[in-house]
Amino acid sequence: MKRQQQKLITGGILLIFSLALCFLSGREFRSMLKKDNIYPSSGLTEVQKLSHYFPSLKGSPGDTDVYIFSGEEASGNLLILGGCHPNEPAGFIAAVLAAENIRVQKGKVLIIPQANLSGFTHNDPFEGNPQRFPISTPGGDRWFRYGSRLTNPVHQWPDPALYRNPAGQKLAGTEYRNLNRNFPGRKNGGLTEKIAFGIMELIRLEKIDIAIDLHEAAPEYPVINAIVFHENSAELAAIALMELQMEGIEIRLEESPKNLRGLSHREWGDLGGIEAFLLETANASHGRFKGKPSIALILEGKDNNYVKAGRLGRLFVPFDENGIPLEERAARHIAAVKALIASHNELHSESLILFSGLPDISALKKEGIGAFLKPPK
Amino acid sequence: MPEYLVFFLMVAVFAVMAMGCKLPIGISLVISAVAGALLGSQGVPVRHLIEGSFGYFDTILIIVTAMIFMRVLQVSGILDTITSLLLRTFYKRKFSLLMTVMVIIMFPGMITGSSTVAVLSTGTLIAPVLIKLGLPKVKTAALIAMGAILGMIAPPVNILVMIMGGGVDMPYVGLTIPLLIIVIPLAIIISLWLGYKDIRIIDQARMQEILPESLEKKVGLRLYLPLLIVFVLMLTQSLSLPLIPDIGIPAIFLVGSLAGTFSGRRFNFFTATQEALQAAMPILCILAGVGMFIQIMTLTGGRGWIVLSFLSLPQALLYGGIATSMPLFGAVSAYGSASILGVPFILALINKNAIITSSALSAIAGLGDLMPPTALAGIFAAQVVGEKNYFKVLRYCLVPAFFELVMGIGVLLLSPLIEKLL
Amino acid sequence: MKKTAIIYCLMFLIPGIGIGNPEAIEPVFEQPILLTSAGQNAEVQLVSVLAKRAGLTFTLSKLATAAELADKKTLVLSIGASMKGLGAAGLDVKQEKTRITDLVKAAQDKKIPIFCLHLGGEARRGQLTDELITLLIPLSQAVIVVNSGNQDGIFTRLCEEYNIPLVGVNRVVDALKPIKDAFK
What we know:
The structure holds 3 protein chains of 3 kinds.
Chain A: H1 2-31, E1 46-49, E2 65-70, E3 73-81, H2 89-101, E4 103-112, E5 132-137, E6 140-145, E7 162-164, E8 170-172, H3 191-205, E9 210-217, E10 226-229, H4 234-246, E11 252-255, H5 264-271, E12 275-282, H6 295-300, H7 304-311, H8 326-347, E13 354-356, H9 361-367
Helix pairs in contact in A: 2-8, 4-8, 8-9
Chain B: H1 3-20, H2 25-39, H3 46-53, H4 57-75, H5 78-90, H6 94-112, H7 115-132, H8 137-153, H9 159-168, H10 176-195, H11 204-210, H12 216-219, H13 225-239, H14 249-260, H15 269-299, H16 302-311, H17 315-329, H18 334-348, H19 354-366, H20 378-385, H21 390-413, H22 415-421
Chain C: H1 2-13, E1 33-38, H2 43-53, E2 58-60, E3 74-79, H3 83-88, H4 93-109, E4 114-118, H5 127-136, E5 142-146, H6 154-162, E6 166-169, H7 176-182
Parallel strand pairs in C: 1-2, 1-3, 3-4, 4-5, 5-6
Helix pairs in contact in C: 4-5
C-alpha cells in the first residue's frame, strides 16, 4: 500500500512538472500564432485573401493576404511571392519591402509576402532557430517571424511515408508540407496543396503575365545567387542578367529542370502559361554548416563555419568574414525583380508593367532595410 | 566556450549519467542536453528542449502503434499460427527458408522506407520461426535488423535517397536498378552469413514437437485479417492510389490492431495497449532525449562543427569520412544522417553519377539505424526476440554491417563502371 | 526602356575591355551558326541574346548532335557545367561529355571552326566545368571569357599554349562587340 502511495506521489509530481513544461513552452509556441504586421504603401488598391480566388481556403491557416496595387491603366500583371519557405527571410522581407513602398503606374502588381502562412507559425525541430528577428526602423524595432520550410503539422498531419505530388513526382513524405513541391496543387488535397491550388487560381483569374517567387538557399546549394527561369522566358532572364551585371550584381542563370516537378517555376510556366521565375540568395542561417543559430546570423549572415567551408571549396557563392547580410540579400531580390520587369517591358510592349518606389540596392545596403519600412504602430 | 568543447562536454555528461550514475539512457540524454544549453550560455531553453523532443513525434507514433500491433498479434494467437504455418512449410529447407525470411522481413521496409516498421511488423512474425529452428535469439535479432535496413534501402521506396535527392534537385527516377545492385547480393550474403550455420534441418516428428498452436482450423481465414489490412493499406499508400486516403503508418497499425480484436483469440485490448506502451517506453524516452540533445547540439553550434569537420577531410580521406561519419551520425537516425551529411557528400562527389552516389550513400546511411542510442532497427529487433542487451545483438551485426559498408564504398568507387552497365 | 537602350549603345561603343585582354578576335567565323552549351549551362541563353543583338544567323540547340552541323559554318559552344541544367536535360556528366566530344569531332572532320565562350564567371567554375575547359579550349579557334571566370588564368594558359585568340571581358554585355567582330 505504501509503495502504491509512493508511486502515486512520484507520478503526481512528474505530472505537475510536465504540465508546467507544457505551459511554459506552450506559451512560446503559441506566440508564433501572432501575425506579422505589414503596412502597405499608399498605392494600395485592395487587400484580398487567397480564399477570394479559392473559397475552400476561407478561414484556414493558409488563407494569406494578397496586396493588390493597380495602376491607372490596365496592362500587364505581376505576381511577387514571398514566404513560400518561411525560413528564407530575404524572400519574405523583400516582398514586405515591395508591399510597403511600391506605387504602380501601369498594369497591376499583386504581392503575397507570406505564401505559406502556416509555415510561419512554427520552427523546424533540430534546427535551433530563433522564432523571430527585429528590423530597426527610425520609429522603433519591427519584429518578423522566422518560420519553417514546411506547413505546421498542427495544420496538416500526418505526412504520408511517400508523397506523390500533384505533378506526379515521388518525394519523401515531409515534402507533402513543402509549398514549393505542391504546385499546381489539388482542389481537395491537403492544406499545402490547397494553398498551391489557390495560387494557381489567382494566376488564372488575375491573368498574371509574369510571376516571381522569392527564395533563399544554403550557401552549399549549387543553385544560388541565381535566377531560375522557365524555358519560355529564357531571353527575358538573359536580358535581366545583363541589366543586373550593369548594376554590379553578379547573378547566374539556371533553367528550370523539366523533370523536377511541383516547383513554382515549372508548374506556373507549364500550366499557367506565364513567365515564371524563382530567385535565390545565400542564407547561412538555414545551411547544414551553420554555427550557432541566432538573430545575428539571420540579420548579419556572418558565420565562421561558412568562411571555412568557402575556403575548402564547398560553397557555390563567395563567403568571407563580412558575411552576407539580410540587407544585401533582400536588395538583390528587389534589384532582380526590377531587372526582370524591365526586361519584360522591353520584350512585351503590349503588357507593360510600370511601377516606382522600390528602393535601390545601394540605398538599401547603405541605409538598411528599416529605412524603407514603416515604423511599428 | 568553443562549440566543440560544449559538444564534448555534452557527450561526457551523458556518459557519466548513463554509465556512472546508471540512469536510463533517455534521462541521461535530457540531462546532457540541459547541461549543454547551460554551458553554451543558453540558460534552460524550455522551448528548444520541447521542440527537439518533438522532432521524433511521428517516429514515436509509429513505434507505439506498431508495438500495439505486435502485442495484438501475440495475444490473439495470430503470431503462433503464422509461426506454425512457416515451420510446416520450411522445416527441412534451409536455403529457401533463409531467402524467404529475408524477403518477408524486407518487404514492409521496401514499401514504407522505414526499418522500424519492418522490424515491428514482419520481423515479429519471423523471429519465433528462426529461434525454433535453432538460430540463437541474438543472431535472429541481427538478421531481422539487417533485413529491415536492407528493406529500407531496397526499391521501390527509399526515403534516404529521396531526402538526399531533395537537397540536390535530383528527382526520384531511375533508382531501381542501382538499388537492386546493392541490395540483392547483400540480402543473400547476410542471410546466409547469419543463419546458415545455426539453422537446423529437422524431421517431421521434431517439427511437430515444436509447433505452436495454430488457430487456423478453429478460426479460419479471418485470422489473417489484421495482417491483410496492414499489408493492403501499406501497399496502397506506397502506390498513392487515387481515392484511397493516406492515413499514415500509425493509423494503419491501429486499424490492423483493432481488426485483431475479433480475428483470433479473445483478449482485453486495453491491457494489450498498456503492455505495449510499457515495452515501448524506454525507447520513446530515448527518442525524446536524442531530439533534445540534437536541438541543443545545433543551438550551441556543435552540429555545424561536426558536419564541417567531416567535410574538411582531404579528398583521399573523403571515403573514409563517409564510411565512418554517416553510420555514426545515424545515432540521430538514418534519415538525419542522409539529410545532414548525405547532401554535402553528394555535392563533394559531384563528378560522379548522382543516382549511383545517392544509392550507395543510402546503403551507408541506413547502417545508422544500428547506431545506439536510437538504433531504430537494432533496438527493436532485440526487443522482438526478447533480448534486453542490445549490444549483444550489435556484435552480430558488425560483420554484416561491414559487408554493407564495403558494398556502399565499392559502388561509390566503381560508379563509372556501374554507370556503363545501366 | 531607356536604360536598356543605353546598355546596348554602350555595348557597341565599349570594345571588349577587361583585364588580360591581349587581342581582339579577327573576323574568322562564318554564318550560319550552330549554338549549344557544353555542360547544359543557362549562359547559352546569354550567348543567344548577344548573337541576336549582333544580328547573327544561328540555331540554338541545347542537345545538338553532329547531324545538326550539316549546313552550319561555325560551332559556338557556351562552356560551363550546371547540375540543374544537366538534370533538366535528363543527362549526367558523362553523357554530356560524350555528346560534346562527338559534336566537336564531327565539326573538326567537317572543318567547321569552333568558337568557345565562358560567360558564367567565377560562379560557373568547378571541377566539371574545368574538365570541359581543358577538353574544349585547345580545339577552338577563338575564346571569349568573363574575367571573373579566369582569375586563376586557366583560359590564358591554355590559349597561350595553343596559340588561340582570347578576349576577356568584365561583364556579359561587353562580349557583344567581340562576338560581332569575330564574324565575317
